[in-house]
Each structure stands twice: as structure tokens, then as C-alpha cells.
Description:
Helix 8 (144-150) packs antiparallel against helix 9 (156-168). Among the domains are: 40-169, Leucine-rich Repeat Variant; 182-280, no CATH class. Mean pLDDT is 84; it is low at 315-329. The chain is an all-alpha fold and 329 residues long. It is elongated and about 110 Å long. It has helices at residues 3-21, 40-53, 59-72, 77-85, 91-104, 110-113, 127-137, 144-150, 156-168, 175-179, 195-206, 212-215, 232-244, 255-270, 272-277, and strands spanning 122-123, 125-126. It has a two-stranded antiparallel ribbon.
Amino acid sequence: MSRHAVLGTFFFLCLALAVRSEEPPKPVDPPKAEDPAPGPVETAKVIEGDIANLSSDDPILASEAYDALLEIGRPAVLPLANKLAAKDTSADAKYLICDILGELREATAVQALLPILKDPLEHVSSVASAAARALGKLADPSAIDPLREALKSTDLELQYEAIRSLGNLRAVAAAPEVRKFLSSENKPTAYGRYLSCAAVEALGKMKDKASVKEIGKWLNKGDVERGTETKFTKYAVRALESITGQNHGSLTKSEEDGTKALDEWKKWWNDPATKKEYGVEEPPKPPTPGPGAETPKEAPKEAPKEAPKEAPKDGATPKDAPNGGPAPK
């Protein structure tokens, strides 16, 4: 390319750039205004509608209302508490409200939930059990004594949730009462869960050393909880790990690892030092006779007593009468 051609090309390029730079800039679109946040009145109406839908016969609508109230969060707590206390609130709505209040973790809900521990209504399981479960999530120690009182109920589902909540609250003072449920493995709740499994779990969280001598026996149990399909041995190991601070391997990585870990825990349990530390009483063994000791002879059997002879009747001749004559009168 000749020198003139290069200069010509450069000239036209500069001219094009100059013309383009003189073009007016394109207007920038203004930012879209966000929708204004709903005011208190609008929010209250939404909450009221969602709470009403909790009682819907349409499970999808009730589920959507449940999720919406969880999303609203703190502003929904007071309306939910008021609805929970209302006499005309249905059992299904009360049950769901208890669960929502537990999930929202607002301590202000405690006073609304405590009276529900004595609520007689049922929705699949008792409404009272839903209240007990929620109280365990709120971490308020004022719920401990009412939950201990709930252990006396005949409602198995309520007992189960009260035990678990006392464990979540680390209610050490309730440990003696919870220990009483360790032998309740044959008492399933409405969902097939066992009171004894909840007790082992709770006592582990309480780090209750006094329960080790009972929990240790579970290391040799082959039972499985119906409701969760969890082995009793797994409940025992988790509790013992928490109480003793020891770890003998994982029960969840693989079946082989789980077997090894359980074997190690059994060795620990059978160690005399463990028995001594946790006050495990072993049955006394019979004394072993030393060398040369005589084997105790069997006690002579007592000779049977001779049956008393029947008195002879008048005129009868007894065998020992002299000369076979008549017996003297």
C-alpha cells in the first residue's frame, strides 16, 4: 500500500470518529420504582387471612398459609398467640399454630403455649404435645416446671415431647423423673416412637452420669424404634458420647465402622474400671474353693417320719398284744 493510501485511510477513520463523538448520548432509562412495602393494615389483613386458612379442609391451602406465616415472622406472633387462646379455634389450627410459634423462636410465645399443655383436643396426636414440642425450641427456662408436670400425663405423645423438650432445655433437675422412662421401650406413641428412646436422648443432652449404668445396658440391645427405624444401640452410643466425652468411632460412615465402634463401646462397658466409676453393681460370684478344700457334703436327708398307728377298735387284737389275746381294757 502506498503512502498516500495509508494517509487517506487514516484521514477517513479520524473523520468517522469525530462525527460519531458528536452524536448525542442515548438517554438512560430511569430506575424502576420498587413496590412500596405493605403498611401495617395490609400486613394485618394478610396475617388474618393466612391464620384463617390454617383451618381449611384443603391441605394445600393450609400448607401455603403455614409457609406464609413462617415467612412473615415476628409480626405474626401476637395474632397467632391470640388465635391459639380463642375458644373457637379448631384442633388442627391449634396444632399448626404451636408448630409455627416453635419455629419462629420468639420467647414472647411461651406464655401463650403453656396453657395448651393441658389442652384436651387432638389433631392426629394431641395439641398439648405440639405445645410441648414448641416449648423445647424456645429455650425459656420458665417452661421447665410445666413440662415436668406434663410427664405425669397419661398422654404418651405429650410425655414423649415433654421428655425431648426437657432434654433440649438441658433441664438437669428433671433427670430423675426422665430416668423413670428408660424401661418404657414397649410404649409407642401415635407415631410409633418410644418413650425410652426419648429418655436416653434427653439424658445424654443433660449429661446425666447417674443414668450411665442403665444406658450402658442398651449397648447389647437389638431393638429398633418403629417410628424412626433407629437402633437402640445408636441412641445409647450418642448419649454415652455426650455424657462421658469419649468417642470410639462412627456409627454412620459404614456398616463395618459402625460394628467396630459398637464393639469398642462394649469393651468400655465391660471394663471393671467403668463399672466402678459409674456404680454399676454386678451380681456377687460364689466363692471359689481353694486347693485341697473339701467339697461340702450334701446334707443328709431327714428320714421320713413313721405314720402314727391307728388306735385299735374295741374288741380288735393288736399285733403286739401278748399271746394274741385281747387288748387290755
